[in-house]
Design goal:
Layout lengths: L3 H64 L5 H15 L6 H6 L3 E6 L5 E6 L2 E2 L10 E2 L2 E8 L7 E6 L7 E3 L4 E11 L7 E3 L4 E9 L5 E2 L3 E2 L2 E2 L24 E5 L3 E4 L2 E8 L4 E4 L2 E6 L1 E4 L4 E5 L1 E5 L5 E4 L3 E6 L9 E5 L4 H4 L3 E5 L2 E19 L4 E15 L3 E6 L13 E3 L2
Parallel strand pairs: 6-8, 6-27, 7-9, 7-27, 8-10, 8-28, 9-11, 10-12, 10-13, 14-16, 15-17, 16-18, 16-19, 17-20, 18-21, 19-22, 20-23, 21-24, 23-26, 24-26, 25-26, 26-27, 27-28
Antiparallel strand pairs: 1-2, 2-5, 3-4, 5-29
Amino acid sequence: MSFRKPLSRISGKASLIFKNQNGNFGIIIAVLIPLLIVVAGGAIDIVSALNQKTKYQDELDAAMLAAAHETSTDARFNTAKSYIQELAESNLSETEMQEAGIALVLTANSDGSLTGKLNMPYPTAFLNIINLKNIPITVTSTVIKTGHSSAAAGCIYVLGNKSQAVLINSGAKLDAKECEVYVHSTSSPAFIMNAGSTIDTAKFCVKGSNYIKNGGTLTNLKVSCSVEPDPYKGTIDEPNVPSTCTTQGALSGTSFVLKPGVHCSTTFNGNPTVTFMPGLHIIKGRMILNSGSTVNAEGVTFYFPDVYSEIRANGGLTFNASAPIKGDYAGILMFEKTSDAANNSQKQQYVFNGSNGETLTGIIHLPNRDAVYNSTTNQTNKISLVVNTLIMNSANWNLSPYEGPGGTGGADEGIRLVR
């Protein structure tokens, strides 16, 4: 008897201990669940904040490039602040920015450069559970005057008010950090951008608000934006077109030197080197250059008297061309007849086929053309381009503002990033 009673007590105690363990496990789970949510959700918050930091950096760079053109301290700050207000998607006052934890500081450095520092907290979704409402983000950007015009300026004007006025297909790459692009379309969609493309500009300004972005990278997009008009409308004198042709028909050979004049429906067989002497070259009909050809056209202006006239390259072209720096057509590389209403109503494609390399400098005024840049087009251009619509297919395009006579490249002193 004396043996069984203690056993009964031990058994009862053992049962009590087992119940306590069940209770402790439930408490532990209850404690761990919010902790696990915080850890997993916190990782999402941190990744989102890092992505947002990249956006903040791009916007601050654009803000500083714009602010550096101003001369007074107040004007510089107000210009930069306008970009930050757009980034915050609200018309915040300076006091409201401070209350929201947004701080923008501009500092003029001893070497003449200008530094901007932006503190902008990123609101959390999950870390808010532990009362961490924001992740602090700080970005800096420094710009300096270069002594020549490289500031943001209008580089591309797409005038057509139609659906899909700009189509950016997979593989297209535009590096134009100093350029602004103006898309006049208010149709739906005004532009379409597909995955695998990268468009890097100082501003991609679209008059309409509807667009389709299936992927890719597009910096500094502004919708419902105040677009700049065609800067060359009515400013370029159209020449009289002589009735006789300087060059015409199919030509065979390895090298040609073309004098200024009228070139009528000309085809160059083989893959020759074609040199256009300085002056005005009127392209009447289609000029065809076969794959592997080389074109040199320094100090040249090309004029197209109707929408069916063009220079068409069949791929593999090397094209180096620059506009005259003085004379009646100073700064004009290519332009077309726009004084004829019938001509203006018949918009036509202008195809820039794949090339080994193109270096173009000057104003290209083709408001009646639906420009198409096809695959493997490699361009390093300083141009101001006006077209009706634009399609980019796998083009590799380095673009900066045209700074010569008649261009929109801005002031004598330009700005560049030095961060």
